[in-house]
Protein backbone atom coordinates (compact mmCIF):
# COMPACT_ATOMS: atom_id res chain seq x y z
CA UNK A 1 0.00 0.00 0.00
CA UNK A 2 1.07 3.60 -0.57
CA UNK A 3 2.48 5.70 2.29
CA UNK A 4 3.03 2.84 4.70
CA UNK A 5 6.21 2.58 6.79
CA UNK A 6 7.19 -0.73 8.38
CA UNK A 7 7.40 -0.74 12.18
CA UNK A 8 11.22 -0.81 12.22
CA UNK A 9 11.41 2.56 10.45
CA UNK A 10 9.21 4.20 13.08
CA UNK A 11 11.30 2.60 15.82
CA UNK A 12 14.50 3.79 14.13
CA UNK A 13 13.26 7.39 14.04
CA UNK A 14 12.13 7.24 17.70
CA UNK A 15 15.49 5.79 18.82
CA UNK A 16 17.49 8.40 16.86
CA UNK A 17 15.42 11.25 18.32
CA UNK A 18 15.66 9.92 21.88
CA UNK A 19 19.42 9.34 21.67
CA UNK A 20 19.86 12.77 20.06
CA UNK A 21 17.84 14.44 22.82
CA UNK A 22 19.85 12.61 25.50
CA UNK A 23 23.23 13.68 24.12
CA UNK A 24 22.06 17.23 23.39
CA UNK A 25 20.74 17.64 26.96
CA UNK A 26 24.13 18.45 28.64
CA UNK A 27 24.24 21.75 26.74
CA UNK A 28 21.27 23.00 28.77
CA UNK A 29 23.10 22.98 32.10
CA UNK A 30 25.86 25.50 31.39
CA UNK A 31 29.09 25.87 33.38
CA UNK A 32 30.24 27.03 36.80
CA UNK A 33 33.28 29.26 37.45
CA UNK A 34 35.68 27.06 39.40
CA UNK A 35 39.19 26.75 40.78
CA UNK A 36 41.11 23.52 40.22
CA UNK A 37 43.93 22.50 42.55
CA UNK A 38 46.40 19.73 41.80
CA UNK A 39 49.56 18.66 43.55
CA UNK A 40 52.92 18.92 41.82
CA UNK A 41 53.38 15.37 43.08
CA UNK A 42 50.26 13.24 42.78
CA UNK A 43 51.07 11.49 46.08
CA UNK A 44 50.86 14.84 47.93
CA UNK A 45 47.11 15.26 47.28
CA UNK A 46 45.04 14.00 50.22
CA UNK A 47 42.50 14.86 52.89
CA UNK A 48 44.97 17.30 54.48
CA UNK A 49 45.02 19.43 51.33
CA UNK A 50 41.23 19.31 51.10
CA UNK A 51 40.82 20.47 54.70
CA UNK A 52 43.35 23.25 54.17
CA UNK A 53 41.40 24.51 51.14
CA UNK A 54 38.14 24.43 53.10
CA UNK A 55 39.66 26.26 56.08
CA UNK A 56 41.26 28.91 53.83
CA UNK A 57 37.98 29.69 52.06
CA UNK A 58 35.98 29.74 55.28
CA UNK A 59 38.56 31.99 56.95
CA UNK A 60 38.17 34.53 54.13
CA UNK A 61 34.34 34.24 54.16
CA UNK A 62 34.32 33.09 50.53
CA UNK A 63 31.26 30.94 49.86
CA UNK A 64 31.48 28.14 47.34
CA UNK A 65 28.88 25.96 45.68
CA UNK A 66 30.70 22.65 46.07
CA UNK A 67 34.14 21.19 46.79
CA UNK A 68 34.96 17.82 45.23
CA UNK A 69 38.17 15.80 45.30
CA UNK A 70 38.79 13.36 42.43
CA UNK A 71 41.69 11.82 40.52
CA UNK A 72 42.54 15.22 38.97
CA UNK A 73 42.72 17.03 42.30
CA UNK A 74 40.31 19.37 44.08
CA UNK A 75 37.60 21.23 42.17
CA UNK A 76 35.87 24.13 43.92
CA UNK A 77 32.79 25.62 42.22
CA UNK A 78 31.64 29.20 42.81
CA UNK A 79 28.56 31.26 42.02
CA UNK A 80 30.40 34.01 40.11
CA UNK A 81 33.76 34.86 38.56
CA UNK A 82 34.49 37.59 41.12
CA UNK A 83 34.58 35.07 43.96
CA UNK A 84 36.48 32.64 41.73
CA UNK A 85 39.30 35.13 41.13
CA UNK A 86 39.57 36.07 44.81
CA UNK A 87 39.71 32.40 45.80
CA UNK A 88 42.38 31.61 43.23
CA UNK A 89 44.78 34.27 44.56
CA UNK A 90 44.05 33.33 48.17
CA UNK A 91 44.58 29.58 47.65
CA UNK A 92 47.77 30.16 45.67
CA UNK A 93 49.27 32.04 48.63
CA UNK A 94 47.99 29.56 51.21
CA UNK A 95 49.05 26.32 49.51
CA UNK A 96 52.50 27.38 48.30
CA UNK A 97 54.65 25.94 45.53
CA UNK A 98 53.69 22.32 46.14
CA UNK A 99 50.33 22.83 44.45
CA UNK A 100 49.10 24.28 41.16
CA UNK A 101 46.02 26.50 41.42
CA UNK A 102 44.26 27.25 38.12
CA UNK A 103 41.04 28.84 36.91
CA UNK A 104 38.45 26.60 35.33
CA UNK A 105 34.99 26.59 33.80
CA UNK A 106 33.50 23.31 35.03
CA UNK A 107 30.48 21.78 33.36
CA UNK A 108 27.31 21.63 35.49
CA UNK A 109 26.08 18.50 33.71
CA UNK A 110 24.65 15.91 36.16
CA UNK A 111 26.84 12.92 36.91
CA UNK A 112 24.38 10.39 35.48
CA UNK A 113 24.66 12.04 32.06
CA UNK A 114 28.46 12.17 32.27
CA UNK A 115 28.50 8.46 33.15
CA UNK A 116 26.61 7.81 29.92
CA UNK A 117 29.28 9.73 28.00
CA UNK A 118 26.96 12.69 27.40
CA UNK A 119 29.09 15.83 27.56
CA UNK A 120 28.41 19.38 26.35
CA UNK A 121 30.04 20.50 23.13
CA UNK A 122 32.94 22.91 23.28
CA UNK A 123 32.27 26.57 22.58
CA UNK A 124 34.89 28.67 20.83
CA UNK A 125 36.55 31.74 22.29
CA UNK A 126 34.22 33.98 20.29
CA UNK A 127 31.18 32.48 22.04
CA UNK A 128 32.22 31.69 25.61
CA UNK A 129 35.73 32.95 26.08
CA UNK A 130 38.16 30.62 27.81
CA UNK A 131 41.42 30.53 29.74
CA UNK A 132 44.03 33.13 28.84
CA UNK A 133 47.74 32.82 29.60
CA UNK A 134 50.28 35.54 28.93
CA UNK A 135 53.76 34.01 28.93
CA UNK A 136 57.09 35.78 29.04
CA UNK A 137 60.01 34.04 27.36
CA UNK A 138 63.45 34.39 28.95
CA UNK A 139 65.12 34.97 25.57
CA UNK A 140 68.44 35.91 27.22
CA UNK A 141 68.77 32.37 28.51
CA UNK A 142 68.75 31.22 24.87
CA UNK A 143 71.92 33.29 24.35
CA UNK A 144 73.39 31.70 27.49
CA UNK A 145 72.59 28.23 26.10
CA UNK A 146 74.32 29.17 22.85
CA UNK A 147 77.47 30.12 24.81
CA UNK A 148 77.32 26.82 26.70
CA UNK A 149 77.08 24.91 23.43
CA UNK A 150 80.19 26.76 22.19
CA UNK A 151 82.05 25.71 25.34
CA UNK A 152 81.27 22.06 24.61
CA UNK A 153 82.21 22.46 20.94
CA UNK A 154 85.49 24.20 21.79
CA UNK A 155 86.54 21.38 24.11
CA UNK A 156 86.06 18.80 21.37
CA UNK A 157 87.65 21.00 18.69
CA UNK A 158 90.79 21.83 20.69
CA UNK A 159 91.20 18.28 21.98
CA UNK A 160 91.06 16.86 18.45
CA UNK A 161 93.55 19.49 17.19
CA UNK A 162 95.78 18.84 20.25
CA UNK A 163 95.80 22.50 21.26
CA UNK A 164 96.37 22.83 25.02
CA UNK A 165 94.41 25.41 27.01
CA UNK A 166 94.43 26.44 30.65
CA UNK A 167 90.85 27.53 31.13
CA UNK A 168 87.49 27.58 29.35
CA UNK A 169 84.46 29.30 30.86
CA UNK A 170 81.50 31.48 30.08
CA UNK A 171 81.82 35.22 30.58
CA UNK A 172 79.25 36.48 33.09
CA UNK A 173 77.94 40.00 32.52
CA UNK A 174 78.70 42.48 29.79
CA UNK A 175 78.36 41.10 26.28
CA UNK A 176 78.71 37.55 27.56
CA UNK A 177 80.56 35.02 25.43
CA UNK A 178 83.25 32.41 26.14
CA UNK A 179 86.70 33.06 27.59
CA UNK A 180 89.63 30.76 26.74
CA UNK A 181 93.07 31.09 28.38
CA UNK A 182 96.33 29.68 26.98
CA UNK A 183 99.93 29.34 28.08
CA UNK A 184 101.33 30.92 24.91
CA UNK A 185 100.39 33.29 22.14
CA UNK A 186 100.98 30.51 19.56
CA UNK A 187 98.37 28.27 21.19
CA UNK A 188 95.95 31.18 21.25
CA UNK A 189 96.57 31.91 17.57
CA UNK A 190 95.99 28.25 16.64
CA UNK A 191 92.76 28.18 18.65
CA UNK A 192 91.53 31.41 17.08
CA UNK A 193 92.20 30.05 13.60
CA UNK A 194 90.29 26.83 14.35
CA UNK A 195 87.33 28.58 15.95
CA UNK A 196 87.00 31.27 13.25
CA UNK A 197 87.14 28.60 10.55
CA UNK A 198 84.04 26.87 11.95
CA UNK A 199 82.32 30.02 13.28
CA UNK A 200 83.16 32.96 10.98
CA UNK A 201 80.46 35.29 12.39
CA UNK A 202 81.77 35.25 15.99
CA UNK A 203 83.34 38.40 17.39
CA UNK A 204 86.79 37.83 18.96
CA UNK A 205 89.06 39.84 21.21
CA UNK A 206 92.45 39.13 22.78
CA UNK A 207 94.08 40.10 26.08
CA UNK A 208 96.94 39.13 28.36
CA UNK A 209 96.37 38.82 32.12
CA UNK A 210 98.96 37.55 34.62
CA UNK A 211 100.83 35.56 32.02
CA UNK A 212 97.67 34.02 30.55
CA UNK A 213 96.91 34.66 26.90
CA UNK A 214 93.15 35.30 26.75
CA UNK A 215 90.80 34.80 23.81
CA UNK A 216 87.16 35.92 24.18
CA UNK A 217 84.55 34.87 21.61
CA UNK A 218 81.06 36.32 21.60
CA UNK A 219 78.00 36.47 19.41
CA UNK A 220 77.41 39.64 17.44
CA UNK A 221 74.32 41.70 18.23
CA UNK A 222 72.77 40.50 14.97
CA UNK A 223 73.39 36.85 15.92
CA UNK A 224 72.00 37.40 19.41
CA UNK A 225 68.85 38.89 17.89
CA UNK A 226 68.49 35.83 15.63
CA UNK A 227 69.03 33.47 18.59
CA UNK A 228 66.33 35.25 20.61
CA UNK A 229 63.96 35.31 17.63
CA UNK A 230 64.51 31.62 16.91
CA UNK A 231 63.98 30.72 20.59
CA UNK A 232 60.64 32.55 20.59
CA UNK A 233 59.52 30.79 17.41
CA UNK A 234 60.61 27.40 18.72
CA UNK A 235 58.72 28.00 21.96
CA UNK A 236 55.56 28.83 20.01
CA UNK A 237 55.95 25.60 18.01
CA UNK A 238 56.56 23.57 21.19
CA UNK A 239 53.57 25.11 22.95
CA UNK A 240 51.39 24.35 19.93
CA UNK A 241 52.56 20.73 20.01
CA UNK A 242 51.81 20.50 23.72
CA UNK A 243 48.34 22.01 23.29
CA UNK A 244 47.63 19.55 20.48
CA UNK A 245 48.66 16.72 22.82
CA UNK A 246 46.19 18.06 25.39
CA UNK A 247 43.43 17.82 22.78
CA UNK A 248 42.32 21.46 22.99
CA UNK A 249 40.09 22.50 20.12
CA UNK A 250 40.91 25.67 18.17
CA UNK A 251 43.48 27.21 20.54
CA UNK A 252 45.03 30.63 19.99
CA UNK A 253 48.83 30.68 20.29
CA UNK A 254 50.52 33.80 19.00
CA UNK A 255 53.45 36.12 19.60
CA UNK A 256 52.99 39.39 21.47
CA UNK A 257 55.88 41.83 21.34
CA UNK A 258 59.48 40.64 21.28
CA UNK A 259 59.42 38.16 24.16
CA UNK A 260 55.84 37.27 25.02
CA UNK A 261 53.37 34.62 23.87
CA UNK A 262 49.59 34.66 24.26
CA UNK A 263 47.88 31.30 24.73
CA UNK A 264 44.07 31.09 24.80
CA UNK A 265 42.44 27.72 25.45
CA UNK A 266 38.68 27.33 24.94
CA UNK A 267 36.86 24.38 26.44
CA UNK A 268 39.65 23.18 28.74
CA UNK A 269 38.31 21.10 31.63
CA UNK A 270 41.65 20.43 33.36
CA UNK A 271 43.26 23.87 33.40
CA UNK A 272 45.61 22.94 36.25
CA UNK A 273 47.25 20.26 34.13
CA UNK A 274 47.28 22.59 31.12
CA UNK A 275 49.09 25.21 33.19
CA UNK A 276 51.70 22.69 34.32
CA UNK A 277 52.25 21.29 30.82
CA UNK A 278 52.51 24.70 29.14
CA UNK A 279 54.96 26.17 31.61
CA UNK A 280 57.16 23.12 32.15
CA UNK A 281 60.71 23.15 30.81
CA UNK A 282 61.44 19.57 31.75
CA UNK A 283 64.28 17.62 30.20
CA UNK A 284 66.41 14.59 31.00
CA UNK A 285 70.12 13.95 31.43
CA UNK A 286 71.79 10.56 31.62
CA UNK A 287 74.89 10.44 33.84
CA UNK A 288 77.12 7.73 35.29
CA UNK A 289 77.10 7.14 39.04
CA UNK A 290 80.43 7.83 40.75
CA UNK A 291 80.97 4.42 42.34
CA UNK A 292 84.64 5.04 43.25
CA UNK A 293 83.89 7.70 45.88
CA UNK A 294 81.82 7.61 49.06
CA UNK A 295 78.47 9.38 49.14
CA UNK A 296 78.82 10.05 52.87
CA UNK A 297 82.08 11.94 52.29
CA UNK A 298 80.35 14.04 49.63
CA UNK A 299 77.43 14.75 52.01
CA UNK A 300 80.01 15.94 54.56
CA UNK A 301 81.24 18.53 52.06
CA UNK A 302 84.09 16.58 50.45
CA UNK A 303 82.71 16.34 46.92
CA UNK A 304 85.37 14.89 44.58
CA UNK A 305 86.46 16.82 41.50
CA UNK A 306 84.46 15.83 38.44
CA UNK A 307 81.38 14.75 40.41
CA UNK A 308 78.27 16.35 41.89
CA UNK A 309 75.88 15.39 44.68
CA UNK A 310 72.21 15.02 43.67
CA UNK A 311 68.94 14.45 45.50
CA UNK A 312 67.34 11.14 44.66
CA UNK A 313 63.59 10.66 44.60
CA UNK A 314 62.70 9.25 47.98
CA UNK A 315 65.08 11.47 49.95
CA UNK A 316 68.42 9.69 49.45
CA UNK A 317 71.57 11.25 47.99
CA UNK A 318 73.55 9.97 45.04
CA UNK A 319 76.94 11.02 43.64
CA UNK A 320 77.04 11.44 39.87
CA UNK A 321 79.80 12.27 37.44
CA UNK A 322 79.67 15.67 35.77
CA UNK A 323 80.01 14.28 32.28
CA UNK A 324 76.61 14.05 30.58
CA UNK A 325 76.19 10.84 28.58
CA UNK A 326 73.07 12.02 26.75
CA UNK A 327 70.50 14.83 26.98
CA UNK A 328 66.80 14.94 26.14
CA UNK A 329 67.53 16.99 22.99
CA UNK A 330 67.96 13.74 21.02
CA UNK A 331 64.55 12.31 21.98
CA UNK A 332 62.12 12.15 19.05
CA UNK A 333 59.34 10.11 20.65
CA UNK A 334 58.19 9.09 24.11
CA UNK A 335 55.26 6.99 25.27
CA UNK A 336 54.02 6.11 28.74
CA UNK A 337 53.44 2.50 29.71
CA UNK A 338 53.94 -0.16 32.35
CA UNK A 339 57.25 -1.82 33.17
CA UNK A 340 56.87 -5.56 32.56
CA UNK A 341 59.16 -6.54 35.46
CA UNK A 342 58.15 -4.21 38.28
CA UNK A 343 54.62 -3.40 37.13
CA UNK A 344 55.28 0.30 37.81
CA UNK A 345 54.89 3.26 35.43
CA UNK A 346 57.52 3.70 32.74
CA UNK A 347 58.33 5.95 29.79
CA UNK A 348 59.51 4.35 26.57
CA UNK A 349 62.07 6.57 24.81
CA UNK A 350 63.02 6.68 21.12
CA UNK A 351 66.16 8.56 20.04
CA UNK A 352 67.08 10.08 16.69
CA UNK A 353 69.95 8.65 14.64
CA UNK A 354 72.68 10.79 16.18
CA UNK A 355 71.42 10.24 19.71
CA UNK A 356 71.24 6.47 19.13
CA UNK A 357 74.88 6.41 17.99
CA UNK A 358 76.04 8.44 21.00
CA UNK A 359 74.03 6.40 23.50
CA UNK A 360 75.10 3.11 21.95
CA UNK A 361 78.77 4.11 22.23
CA UNK A 362 78.71 5.37 25.83
CA UNK A 363 76.55 2.52 27.19
CA UNK A 364 78.69 -0.03 25.34
CA UNK A 365 81.78 1.38 27.07
CA UNK A 366 80.14 1.27 30.51
CA UNK A 367 78.32 -2.07 30.70
CA UNK A 368 77.73 -3.25 34.32
CA UNK A 369 78.12 0.31 35.62
CA UNK A 370 75.35 2.31 37.31
CA UNK A 371 73.60 4.98 35.24
CA UNK A 372 71.25 7.64 36.61
CA UNK A 373 68.43 9.51 34.91
CA UNK A 374 68.32 13.15 36.07
CA UNK A 375 65.03 15.00 35.68
CA UNK A 376 65.64 18.75 35.31
CA UNK A 377 62.80 21.24 35.58
CA UNK A 378 62.84 25.05 35.69
CA UNK A 379 60.26 26.60 37.98
CA UNK A 380 59.21 30.16 38.69
CA UNK A 381 57.84 31.54 41.95
CA UNK A 382 55.85 34.78 41.79
CA UNK A 383 56.23 36.92 44.91
CA UNK A 384 55.10 40.40 45.88
CA UNK A 385 58.09 42.46 47.08
CA UNK A 386 57.46 46.11 48.01
CA UNK A 387 54.15 45.95 46.18
CA UNK A 388 55.77 44.75 42.95
CA UNK A 389 55.31 41.42 41.23
CA UNK A 390 58.72 39.69 41.18
CA UNK A 391 59.46 36.39 39.42
CA UNK A 392 62.08 34.29 41.18
CA UNK A 393 63.45 31.40 39.15
CA UNK A 394 64.84 28.14 40.44
CA UNK A 395 65.99 24.92 38.82
CA UNK A 396 65.02 21.58 40.30
CA UNK A 397 67.33 18.65 39.55
CA UNK A 398 66.24 15.26 40.78
CA UNK A 399 67.45 11.71 40.10
CA UNK A 400 64.35 9.67 39.22
CA UNK A 401 66.05 6.40 38.36
CA UNK A 402 69.34 4.57 38.99
CA UNK A 403 69.92 1.28 37.19
CA UNK A 404 72.85 -0.89 36.17
CA UNK A 405 73.62 -1.00 32.45
CA UNK A 406 73.14 -4.67 31.61
CA UNK A 407 73.82 -4.37 27.89
CA UNK A 408 74.58 -1.86 25.17
CA UNK A 409 71.55 0.39 24.62
CA UNK A 410 70.58 1.98 21.34
CA UNK A 411 67.58 3.70 19.78
CA UNK A 412 64.80 2.44 22.10
CA UNK A 413 64.87 1.97 25.85
CA UNK A 414 62.75 2.71 28.92
CA UNK A 415 63.08 4.66 32.15
CA UNK A 416 61.31 3.81 35.41
CA UNK A 417 61.18 5.17 38.96
CA UNK A 418 58.22 7.49 38.39
CA UNK A 419 55.62 8.11 41.10
CA UNK A 420 52.47 7.44 39.08
CA UNK A 421 51.04 6.75 35.64
CA UNK A 422 49.91 10.38 35.49
CA UNK A 423 53.52 11.53 35.93
CA UNK A 424 54.70 9.12 33.24
CA UNK A 425 52.03 10.44 30.84
CA UNK A 426 52.99 14.07 31.48
CA UNK A 427 56.72 13.37 31.14
CA UNK A 428 56.13 11.47 27.90
CA UNK A 429 54.02 14.37 26.60
CA UNK A 430 56.74 16.92 27.39
CA UNK A 431 59.51 14.85 25.81
CA UNK A 432 57.38 14.05 22.76
CA UNK A 433 56.27 17.65 22.17
CA UNK A 434 59.84 18.90 22.36
CA UNK A 435 61.82 20.99 24.79
CA UNK A 436 61.38 24.71 25.15
CA UNK A 437 64.27 26.68 23.66
CA UNK A 438 64.07 29.10 26.59
CA UNK A 439 62.22 29.10 29.93
CA UNK A 440 58.81 30.76 30.04
CA UNK A 441 56.95 32.34 32.93
CA UNK A 442 53.17 32.70 33.15
CA UNK A 443 52.90 36.40 34.04
CA UNK A 444 49.14 36.65 33.62
CA UNK A 445 46.30 34.16 33.88
CA UNK A 446 42.62 34.93 33.59
CA UNK A 447 39.36 33.81 32.10
CA UNK A 448 38.41 35.86 29.06
CA UNK A 449 35.02 36.83 27.71
CA UNK A 450 33.82 36.37 24.16
CA UNK A 451 35.84 38.37 21.64
CA UNK A 452 32.80 40.17 20.21
CA UNK A 453 31.30 41.10 23.56
CA UNK A 454 28.40 39.45 25.35
CA UNK A 455 25.85 41.98 24.05
CA UNK A 456 26.72 41.20 20.43
CA UNK A 457 26.51 37.48 21.13
CA UNK A 458 23.12 37.84 22.79
CA UNK A 459 21.89 39.82 19.78
CA UNK A 460 23.27 37.16 17.44
CA UNK A 461 21.49 34.36 19.32
CA UNK A 462 18.30 36.46 19.42
CA UNK A 463 18.46 36.99 15.65
CA UNK A 464 18.79 33.21 15.13
CA UNK A 465 15.78 32.60 17.38
CA UNK A 466 13.69 35.28 15.64
CA UNK A 467 14.65 33.93 12.21
CA UNK A 468 13.82 30.39 13.32
CA UNK A 469 10.40 31.45 14.65
CA UNK A 470 9.60 33.39 11.45
CA UNK A 471 10.46 30.33 9.34
CA UNK A 472 8.24 28.16 11.56
CA UNK A 473 5.37 30.66 11.26
CA UNK A 474 5.74 30.89 7.47
CA UNK A 475 5.78 27.10 7.01
CA UNK A 476 2.74 26.69 9.26
CA UNK A 477 0.83 29.45 7.45
CA UNK A 478 1.73 28.42 3.88
CA UNK A 479 1.61 24.63 4.13
CA UNK A 480 -0.73 24.19 7.12
CA UNK A 481 -0.67 20.59 8.38
CA UNK A 482 2.36 19.62 6.33
CA UNK A 483 4.04 22.83 7.47
CA UNK A 484 3.52 21.59 11.03
CA UNK A 485 5.30 18.34 10.12
CA UNK A 486 8.17 20.35 8.62
CA UNK A 487 8.46 22.43 11.80
CA UNK A 488 8.69 19.30 13.96
CA UNK A 489 11.39 17.94 11.65
CA UNK A 490 13.22 21.27 11.83
CA UNK A 491 13.29 21.09 15.63
CA UNK A 492 14.50 17.49 15.44
CA UNK A 493 17.23 18.60 13.05
CA UNK A 494 18.56 21.23 15.49
CA UNK A 495 18.57 18.70 18.35
CA UNK A 496 20.47 16.15 16.22
CA UNK A 497 23.07 18.74 15.13
CA UNK A 498 23.75 19.72 18.75
CA UNK A 499 23.84 16.04 19.76
CA UNK A 500 26.37 15.11 17.08
CA UNK A 501 28.56 18.12 17.93
CA UNK A 502 28.47 17.06 21.58
CA UNK A 503 29.24 13.41 20.83
CA UNK A 504 32.19 14.40 18.63
CA UNK A 505 33.28 17.00 21.22
CA UNK A 506 33.56 19.49 18.37
CA UNK A 507 33.90 23.24 18.90
CA UNK A 508 31.01 25.56 18.07
CA UNK A 509 32.00 29.07 16.96
CA UNK A 510 30.12 32.00 15.43
CA UNK A 511 30.93 30.73 11.90
CA UNK A 512 29.60 27.37 13.10
CA UNK A 513 26.30 29.02 14.03
CA UNK A 514 26.23 30.47 10.51
CA UNK A 515 26.57 26.91 9.20
CA UNK A 516 23.60 25.82 11.36
CA UNK A 517 21.46 28.70 10.07
CA UNK A 518 22.36 27.73 6.49
CA UNK A 519 21.43 24.13 7.29
CA UNK A 520 18.02 25.25 8.59
CA UNK A 521 17.43 27.04 5.31
CA UNK A 522 18.44 23.97 3.32
CA UNK A 523 16.21 21.69 5.42
CA UNK A 524 13.23 24.00 4.83
CA UNK A 525 14.12 24.16 1.14
CA UNK A 526 13.92 20.35 0.94
CA UNK A 527 10.43 20.37 2.46
CA UNK A 528 9.35 23.20 0.16
CA UNK A 529 10.38 21.11 -2.88
CA UNK A 530 8.46 18.10 -1.55
CA UNK A 531 5.32 20.04 -0.62
CA UNK A 532 5.20 21.96 -3.91
CA UNK A 533 5.54 18.66 -5.76
CA UNK A 534 2.58 17.26 -3.77
CA UNK A 535 0.52 20.35 -4.69
CA UNK A 536 1.44 19.90 -8.34
CA UNK A 537 0.33 16.26 -8.27
CA UNK A 538 -2.97 17.30 -6.69
CA UNK A 539 -3.54 19.91 -9.41
CA UNK A 540 -3.00 17.19 -12.02
CA UNK A 541 -5.94 15.32 -10.53
CA UNK A 542 -4.08 12.57 -8.68
CA UNK A 543 -5.46 11.16 -5.46
CA UNK A 544 -4.12 12.51 -2.15
CA UNK A 545 -2.35 9.21 -1.37
CA UNK A 546 -0.71 9.09 -4.80
CA UNK A 547 0.25 12.78 -4.55
CA UNK A 548 2.02 12.25 -1.21
CA UNK A 549 3.94 9.26 -2.57
CA UNK A 550 4.90 11.04 -5.81
CA UNK A 551 5.88 14.22 -3.98
CA UNK A 552 8.45 12.46 -1.82
CA UNK A 553 9.71 10.03 -4.47
CA UNK A 554 10.13 12.51 -7.32
CA UNK A 555 11.65 15.32 -5.23
CA UNK A 556 14.21 13.00 -3.63
CA UNK A 557 16.72 13.02 -6.50
CA UNK A 558 16.72 16.83 -6.71
CA UNK A 559 17.18 17.17 -2.93
CA UNK A 560 19.94 14.54 -2.90
CA UNK A 561 21.87 16.23 -5.74
CA UNK A 562 21.72 19.63 -4.03
CA UNK A 563 22.83 18.25 -0.65
CA UNK A 564 25.62 16.08 -2.05
CA UNK A 565 27.18 18.96 -3.97
CA UNK A 566 26.98 21.17 -0.87
CA UNK A 567 28.52 18.38 1.23
CA UNK A 568 31.44 18.11 -1.21
CA UNK A 569 32.03 21.86 -0.89
CA UNK A 570 31.91 21.57 2.92
CA UNK A 571 34.47 18.74 2.91
CA UNK A 572 36.81 20.82 0.72
CA UNK A 573 36.41 23.80 3.07
CA UNK A 574 37.28 21.59 6.04
CA UNK A 575 40.28 20.07 4.26
CA UNK A 576 41.86 23.33 3.12
CA UNK A 577 40.47 25.85 5.58
CA UNK A 578 41.65 26.78 9.06
CA UNK A 579 40.06 28.04 12.26
CA UNK A 580 36.67 29.70 11.66
CA UNK A 581 36.31 28.17 8.18
CA UNK A 582 36.65 24.68 9.63
CA UNK A 583 34.03 25.52 12.26
CA UNK A 584 31.62 26.55 9.50
CA UNK A 585 32.39 23.42 7.46
CA UNK A 586 31.86 21.04 10.42
CA UNK A 587 28.38 22.29 11.33
CA UNK A 588 27.38 22.52 7.67
CA UNK A 589 28.45 18.91 7.00
CA UNK A 590 26.66 17.58 10.08
CA UNK A 591 23.57 19.65 9.25
CA UNK A 592 23.37 18.30 5.71
CA UNK A 593 23.36 14.70 6.91
CA UNK A 594 20.82 15.31 9.71
CA UNK A 595 18.55 17.42 7.49
CA UNK A 596 18.39 14.64 4.89
CA UNK A 597 17.16 12.35 7.65
CA UNK A 598 14.65 14.72 9.26
CA UNK A 599 13.38 16.63 6.20
CA UNK A 600 12.70 13.49 4.15
CA UNK A 601 12.34 10.48 6.44
CA UNK A 602 11.04 12.42 9.45
CA UNK A 603 8.26 14.39 7.73
CA UNK A 604 7.23 11.38 5.64
CA UNK A 605 6.92 9.27 8.79
CA UNK A 606 4.52 11.88 10.22
CA UNK A 607 2.55 12.08 6.96
CA UNK A 608 2.34 8.27 6.74
CA UNK A 609 1.26 8.08 10.37
CA UNK A 610 -1.58 10.57 9.80
CA UNK A 611 -2.71 9.63 6.28
CA UNK A 612 -1.27 6.18 5.58
CA UNK A 613 -4.11 4.05 6.99
CA UNK A 614 -6.93 6.22 5.67
CA UNK A 615 -8.35 4.80 2.45
CA UNK A 616 -10.45 7.81 1.59
CA UNK A 617 -8.98 11.28 1.96
CA UNK A 618 -11.12 14.15 0.75
CA UNK A 619 -8.46 16.85 1.12
CA UNK A 620 -4.86 17.26 2.27
CA UNK A 621 -3.92 20.00 4.75
CA UNK A 622 -1.32 21.53 2.43
What does this structure look like?
With 622 residues, this protein is α+β, with helices and mostly antiparallel strands. The mean pLDDT is 81. It is elongated, with a radius of gyration of 33 Å. It has four domains: 178 residues, Multidrug efflux transporter AcrB transmembrane fold, CATH 1.20.1640.10; 71 residues, Alpha-Beta Plaits, CATH 3.30.70.260; 85 residues, Gyrase A, domain 2 (2-Layer Sandwich), CATH 3.30.1360; 138 residues, Gyrase A, domain 2 (2-Layer Sandwich). Helix 2 packs across helix 3, helix 13 crosses helix 14 and helix 13 crosses helix 16. The chain has a five-stranded mixed beta barrel with strand order 13-15-14-19-18. Strands 2-3-1-4 form a four-stranded antiparallel β-sheet, sandwiched between helices. 35% of the residues are buried. Strand 14 and strand 15 form a beta hairpin. It contains 16 helices and 22 strands.
Describe the secondary structure blueprint for this structure:
Layout: H1 7-24, E1 31-39, H2 47-59, E2 66-70, E3 73-77, H3 81-95, E4 99-107, H4 111-115, E5 122-123, H5 125-128, E6 130-137, H6 139-161, E7 167-170, E8 178-182, H7 185-198, E9 203-209, E10 212-218, H8 221-246, E11 252-256, E12 260-265, H9 271-279, E13 283-289, H10 295-299, E14 307-312, E15 317-327, E16 331-338, E17 345-351, H11 353-365, E18 370-385, E19 388-404, E20 412-415, H12 421-433, E21 440-448, H13 454-504, E22 507-508, H14 510-539, H15 544-576, H16 580-611
Parallel strand pairs: 5-22, 14-19
Antiparallel strand pairs: 1-3, 1-4, 2-3, 6-12, 6-21, 7-8, 8-10, 9-10, 11-12, 13-15, 13-18, 14-15, 16-17, 17-20, 18-19
Helix pairs in contact: 1-13, 2-3, 6-8, 13-14, 13-16, 14-15, 14-16, 15-16
